[in-house]
Write a structure and sequence with these properties.
By secondary structure, this protein is an alpha/beta fold. It is built from 13 helices and 19 strands.
Length: 467
C-alpha cells in the first residue's frame, strides 16, 4: 500500500523538503499533485533520518507548503524501451513529444546506469566513417571510443553535429546495424527545430533517436537527459546488437545545470563555482561508452562542449580531457577565414586511432600519411611566424612551399562543404595530393615502401583499391 504525504516542509527553487518520510531511497521517483489537479514528478536526491530532499522536474512557482501531495513510487526513474524508439523524438525525461504516443513495452530500464566494468570491456577496433576528412584521417573515430568536440560560442558545432548524424556509417563494406542517439541539452527552439528538420529532410531520422531538452525546460531536467539517452543507447547496443553513436550537446549546459542545483542545495563550491563532484558526474556519463566482451554491439560517444571564453583550461574541458580518449578542437581563427569545419588539427587527437586504421581497417598508408600531414602542418606555423617577421618574399623556396601547403591544406583538406561526404579513399588521396607540393625528401615520417607506392609521381597510372 502506497502512502501519500500531505504538505511540504520547505521549498527552495527546484528543491523541496519532505519530513516524516518512511522507507525513502536515494534516486527514487516521487509523484507530486498540486492543487489536486496538476501532476509533476521529482527525484529524491538526499535522505537523512525522516527527511527527504526532492528535486522537482518542473517549476515550483505554483507549489506551496499546503497545496502539494507527495507519493513515493518505490523505484528510480525508468525508461520504456523497444526497437520503436528509433525514429522517435522525446523530451529530456524520455517522454514522447512527436505526437506518436508513448512507447508500449514491458522492458523498462533504470536510467541511472553504471560505467562499464573495465574487466568486461573489449579493446575498441574499427573506425566509424563520418565523411569529414579532418576527422576520418587525422582524428579517426573508433567504435566504442569517447571523443569530445571542444567548441566555443558562435562556432558551428551544431552544423558539425548535424553533418555527422547525416553522414556517419560503419563503412561501405559493413553489413552491421548502425544507429544514432542524439541528445541536446539547453538548446533554443529554433536550434532544436533545425536539428529535427535537418534529420527528416536528409532521411537520417529513421535511424536516429532524439532527446531534446529545450532552453525553457526545467534546468534539473538537463541532469537526467544524458543518462536517459545513454540508457536507450545501451539497450540498442547490448541487447539489440547495434553499433550506436551517441552525440551529446552541450555538456556545458549540463555542467551549468549541476552548478545551479548544487548552489540551491547550499553545497560548498569548487573551481569556478562548480561542485566538487563535477569530475565524477562527467566520468559516470562518459564511461558508459565502450564494447562489452561477448556482446556484438558498441556505444561510441561524441560529447560536444562550448569552452567559456575559448578557455581550454576551464574545468569542463579540462576534466573532460582527463576522462576521454582525445578531443577535436574547433578554432575561431579558422572560422574567421570561413573554413568549415574549423577543426584545428594540431591540438586535436584520437588516442585510439592507431589501432583502428591501417591495413584491414582503412588502408595501409593511413597512419604514415596522418603523421606526415601533422608534421608538415606544424612546420607551416614556423614558416608563417618567420614570414610575419621578414616578409614572405624573403623566405626560402622550401618555406614558400610550406606556406602553399598550409593554405591549400586548410582550404581543401580541412575545409569542405556542409553536404560533402568524402569516402576514406577520397580523403587519403587528397592528403597525398597535398603532400606532393613538398619535395619528396621532406616526407620523413613515411615508410619508404609506402612513399614509393603512393606518392603521386609514382601513382598517376594507378588507382589504389579499398582493402
Amino acid at each position: 500500500m502506497s502512502i501519500e504525504y500531505l504538505g511540504l516542509s520547505e521549498i527552495n527553487g527546484p528543491l523541496i523538503v519532505l519530513e516524516g518520510v518512511q522507507d525513502a531511497s536515494y534516486d527514487e521517483i516521487v509523484e507530486l499533485t498540486v492543487d489536486q489537479t496538476k501532476k509533476k514528478i521529482g527525484r529524491i536526491i538526499e535522505c537523512y533520518e525522516d527527511k527527504a530532499v526532492i528535486q522537482v522536474f518542473g517549476n515550483t512557482d505554483d507549489m506551496s507548503l499546503l497545496n502539494t501531495h507527495t507519493k513515493l513510487t518505490g523505484h528510480p526513474m525508468e525508461l520504456a524501451l523497444s526497437d520503436a524508439i528509433l525514429g522517435r523524438t522525446f523530451n529530456g525525461l524520455g517522454q514522447p513529444i512527436d505526437g506518436l504516443g508513448p512507447i508500449v513495452s514491458s522492458i523498462r530500464r533504470d536510467v541511472n546506469g553504471e560505467p562499464l566494468n573495465p574487466v568486461s570491456r573489449e579493446y575498441p577496433r574499427n573506425y566509424i566513417h563520418t565523411g569529414i576528412s579532418a576527422i576520418d584521417c587525422l582524428t579517426t573515430l573508433i567504435r566504442g571510443q569517447k571523443l569530445p568536440i571542444f567548441s566555443g560560442n558562435g562556432l558551428p558545432h551544431d552544423q558539425l553535429a548535424a553533418q555527422i548524424v547525416r553522414q556517419a556509417s560503419l563503412g561501405e563494406n559493413s553489413s552491421e546495424e548502425f544507429g544514432i542517439v542524439f541528445a541536446a541539452m539547453g538548446v533554443k527552439h529554433d536550434v532544436a527545430e533545425a536539428f529535427r528538420r535537418e534529420f527528416e529532410e536528409s532521411g537520417a531520422s529513421d535511424h536516429v533517436c532524439m532527446f531534446l531538452n529545450l532552453a525553457n525546460d526545467p534546468v534539473v531536467e538537463r541532469l537526467i537527459t544524458p543518462k536517459v539517452a545513454l540508457t536507450a543507447a545501451e539497450y540498442l547496443a547490448f541487447e539489440k546488437g547495434m553499433h550506436i553513436l551517441v552525440i551529446l550537446t552541450d555538456m556545458t549546459s549540463f555542467a551549468e545545470a549541476m552548478r545551479e542545483v548544487s548552489s540551491s542545495k547550499g553545497e560548498i563550491p569548487s573551481r569556478k563555482g562548480y561542485p566538487g563532484y563535477l569530475y565524477s558526474e562527467l566520468a559516470t556519463i562518459y564511461e558508459r561508452a565502450g564494447i562489452v566482451a561477448g556482446k556484438p554491439g558498441s556505444v561510441t560517444q561524441i560529447p560536444i562542449l562550448t569552452m567559456p571564453n575559448d578557455d581550454i583550461t576551464h574545468p569542463i574541458p579540462d576534466l573532460t580531457g582527463y576522462i576521454t580518449e582525445g578531443q577535436i578542437v574547433l578554432d575561431r581563427s579558422l572560422h574567421q577565414k570561413t573554413i568549415y569545419p574549423p577543426i584545428n588539427v594540431l591540438p586535436s587527437l584520437s588516442r585510439l586511432m592507431k589501432d583502428g586504421i591501417g591495413k584491414g581497417y582503412t588502408r595501409e598508408d593511413h597512419n604514415d600519411l596522418a603523421n606526415q600531414l601533422f608534421s608538415a602542418y606544424a612546420h607551416v606555423g614556423d614558416a608563417r611566424n618567420l614570414a610575419s617577421v621578414i616578409g614572405e618574399d624573403e623566405l626560402s623556396t622550401l618555406d614558400k612551399k610550406y606556406l602553399e601547403f598550409g593554405n591549400r591544406f586548410e582550404q581543401e583538406f580541412i575545409g569542405q562543404g556542409l553536404a560533402e561526404n568524402r569516402s576514406i579513399l577520397q580523403t587519403l588521396s587528397l592528403g597525398w595530393e597535398l603532400l606532393s607540393i613538398l619535395p619528396k625528401e621532406e616526407l620523413d615520417r613515411i615508410d619508404t615502401k609506402i612513399l614509393d607506392q603512393y606518392y603521386p609521381d609514382s601513382t598517376d597510372s594507378e588507382t589504389p583499391t579499398e582493402p
